[in-house]
Specification:
This protein has five helices and nine strands. The protein has helices spanning about 50-65, 75-80, 135-150, 165-175, 190-195; strands spanning about 5, 15, 25, 30, 40-45, 90-95, 100-110, 115-125, 155.
């Protein structure tokens, strides 16, 4: 939870969501933070020129998820599949004081039974040093706004079973597990060999 902290000397309102450092003096119920400036978090749609930053962030996600052996994405593929005119995937970048620290990628989906358009969140990643500052929440809020703008009524995503901190974060948001469903994938040689009848 972020705590508003007011510096009586300068009137700067800052938000702190991490443990307080030892050098910040506590004065009663408030904290004095001398000469501290507010940090700026911004979320924006990715644009041409972001390919390297997106690649770096998604590779860090692959490392975190222990999936680097499956990572095939390159900046050239990002330019084609995320930045291209008919891109199958969309992307948002989170910046903290001007540096890229988070990423979300998604694409449209459709529920025939529900007769409704949705978005599938493929990737959500915030660099570990910047977690706890509201960046993940801001990326999801950006995506929710896009969903509403596009007439989507839901956002789906999957999470690795061992990623307890992500599961707790999603449950805190109010997201619900889709019980009784499993993800299947047909790829590679099996996809090629599936006979057409």
């Amino acid at each position: 939870m972020s705590l508003p902290l007011l510096n009586d000397a300068t009137g700067i309102l800052v938000f702190c969501s991490r443990k307080l450092s030892k050098d910040i003096p506590i004065l009663g119920p408030r904290l004095l933070i001398p000469r501290m400036e507010m940090t700026k978090i911004s979320i924006r749609a990715a644009v041409s020129g972001d390919e390297e930053a997106i690649h770096s962030l998604l590779y860090e996600l692959a490392v975190y998820e222990r999936l680097t052996a499956k990572f095939r994405l390159t900046p050239a593929i990002i330019a084609r599949d995320i930045m291209g005119t008919a891109s199958p995937c969309c992307c948002a970048i989170a910046e903290f004081d001007g540096a890229a620290v988070g990423v979300a990628t998604w694409y449209p989906i459709y529920s025939t039974f529900g007769a409704s358009h949705g978005l599938y969140l493929e990737d959500l990643f915030v660099r570990p040093a910047r977690r706890g500052c509201g960046i993940g929440m801001s990326l999801l809020a950006f995506l929710a706004a896009r969903a509403r703008q596009e007439g989507a009524t839901y956002i789906d995503w999957s999470v690795l079973g061992w990623n307890k901190s992500a599961i707790a974060f999603y449950e805190k948001l109010g997201a619900k597990r889709v019980e009784g469903w499993h993800i299947f994938r047909l790829s590679g040689q099996r996809l090629e060999e599936l006979p057409v009848r």
